Amino acid sequence: MFDLPPLVDHHCHGVLLDDPDADVFASYLTESDAPAAPGTSFFDTQAGFAVRRWCPPLLGLDPYTSPARYLARRRELGAAEANRRLLGATGIGTFLVDTGLPGDLTTPEELSRAGGGRAREIVRLEVLAERAADAFDDARTFVDALDASVDSAARTAAGFKSVVAYRHGLALAPEAPTAAEVLTAAGQWLGARSPGDRLTHPVLLRHLLWTAVDTGLPLQLHTGFGDPDLRLDHADPLLLTDFVKATAGSGCDLVLLHGYPYHRGAGYLAAVFPHVYADMGLTLGHTGARARALLAEMLELTPFGKLLFSTDGYALPELYVIGARLFRTALEELLGEWVRDGSWGYPDAHRVAKMLASANARRVYRL
User: Fold this and answer.
1) Which of 44, 74, 115, 275 is the most core-located residue (most Cβ within 10 A)?
2) How far apart are CA 50 and CA 164, in angstroms?
3) According to the model, what pLDDT value does residue 1 have?
């Protein structure tokens, strides 16, 4: 119904370079870090069913083929060929890749090459801090190195990403800390830190956020659901309201990732604050056959120029496939219904579809 341009996936990650076994594969179909209940599999989820619906035909199999047959075919092809076939079928033209996750994953360049598109990097702020802490144990040197690393990354990155929702929660004091407060906090954290420890100090997290805001690049913020390392009630985007107000007029756009089950709150913030945007990634892939209903809820209050497509694809190229396919299917069904019942005219529906697919992201990230 809609002739869409190549999608801009504004938030995603690398995919595995090697073939995962059945248990590892299934583990990426959920945000849980525990095994499935005895006698069950994470293939029995909305994400798992979506994979079985949309991915087998891309590897030469019938839809709904069994997980065992699908994974056997995947092994026959090998990881590189499976990645190429699956990513190449997504219709994604630009990948904005968060490189902050560990693992034997493709680089942004390798990901885009397999998908036949282009890539830019999204730099994760907490990783910059932890790298600086591994290199410097003096508070002043650490702070100077951290600030320099953010400035350096801003020269080439498309934007920054923070997982402060995981490290502390979103109910941070909204204002930027003073230089003295940052130096004191750095001394406290470095003095108590062991190698490999993650950044959780609230003052340093606030300093990171404001250092990124000062670059003027878009800042992605994880909100809503994730793995059990997250306290979901601490990840409600409405907890960011004071920070949103404090950053108004800064020149930095805030992009609220994921959101579910608080996606309506993210849409509200995008509706009332000019520099706030909402995202549908992760949510559509994990709600599967319910993606249309979730997209409808996102479009209740979110201005149509403030909602961005992403897959949040990670490790499995299949997650890119279902993220893109569910988005297209939900969009065509939903907007098509509004056109048929006379609520919308087709030209407006087509224009909005293109905004969600790519134009909004191109504007926000200056692509």
Assistant:
1) 115
2) 30
3) 80
Q: Report which residue type is found at 116.
A: G
Rg over alpha carbons for the chain, rounded to the nearest Å, is 21
Domain at 7-21+81-364, CATH from 3.60.10.10, 3.40.50.10260, 3.20.20.140, 3.30.530.20: 3.20.20.140
Q: Which pLDDT belongs to residue 308?
A: 98
Q: Measured on CA atoms in the order 27, 29, 33, 34, is the torsion positive or negative?
A: negative
Residues of the chain with pLDDT under 70: none
Q: Are 236 and 259 in contact (CB under 8 A)?
A: no
Tokens representing residue 159 in the block: 């934007």
Return the number of other C-beta atoms located less than 10 Å from residue 62's C-beta: 8
How many other CB atoms are found less than 10 A from the CB of residue 249?
8
195: how many CB neighbours lie within 10 A of its CB? 7
- The pTM of the full predicted model, rounded to 2 decimals, is 0.97
Element spanning 311, H or E: none
Residue 315 carries which DSSP code? B
